[in-house]
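Many introductory courses stop at the sequence. We go one step further.
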Amino acid sequence: MANLKDIRRRIRSVQSTQQITKAMKMVSAAKLRRSQESMFAARPYAEKMLEVLNSLACRADQTQHPLLEVRPEKIVHVVVVTADRGLCAAFNTNILRHAGHFLERLKGEGKSVALHAVGRKAWDYFKRRDYAVESHWVGLFTKVKYEDADKIASHLIGLYASKQCDAIYMIYNQFKSIIAQNLMEEAVLPIQRLPASDPELGPDYLYEPTQQELFETLLPRHVTFQVFRAILESVAAEHGARMTAMDSATNNARDMIDHLTLYANRVRQAAITKEIIEVVSGAQALG
């Protein structure tokens, strides 16, 4: 039977852990609220920009801009977006597992693969494995800035425009709800276009300025905003996952404290009963 002093020490330890997990839950809840506001504000803009670009790009010759050019996928670059920290349940594990399967599938198809890691967890995971990590960015989730997304997008655009790769994909967690995330696997470059024969296209436009000038301005901005939106989605999903994980940990700590308290009372009662028996036995022996 455990010593009563050890049990009480363990109860205090679990109570300290419970205070930490409860505080982390409250912090994540506050951050989630702010992240959701930014994410929900970005979604309509990103969707409308994609719609406008589809409408423009599907009518254009793919040679009009390097970001529209579709090439056979021989060299594929993959951007994996994870969090910088843990304690968020299976948030990072799921994305890394999915990315690993996706990379192995590309290799199985005979394609050359290179990685770009956004988030410390992705960088730490892949640098220890047999993958070429071309670039990495960490510390972006603390405060998401459009300028950081622009740096990432500019790097990716440069790689694709210079034909150092034939396609770029992004894998990230899309925020669905506080308790659920969607694993997303999106093609970033080349920019996806509707078929020219699609009946939804309607008539062509008169362009002012020229179509080429519009592409020069809109296409890089579109790639930047898609990267920015993916990071915003990942940040909101991370805070939701951490809040859920810390809530579960807090509840588990409470259950453990109740169990240990009950066990401590039983040990104390057993010790008191033993002492009473010894006193009675001693009195009977003297009598």
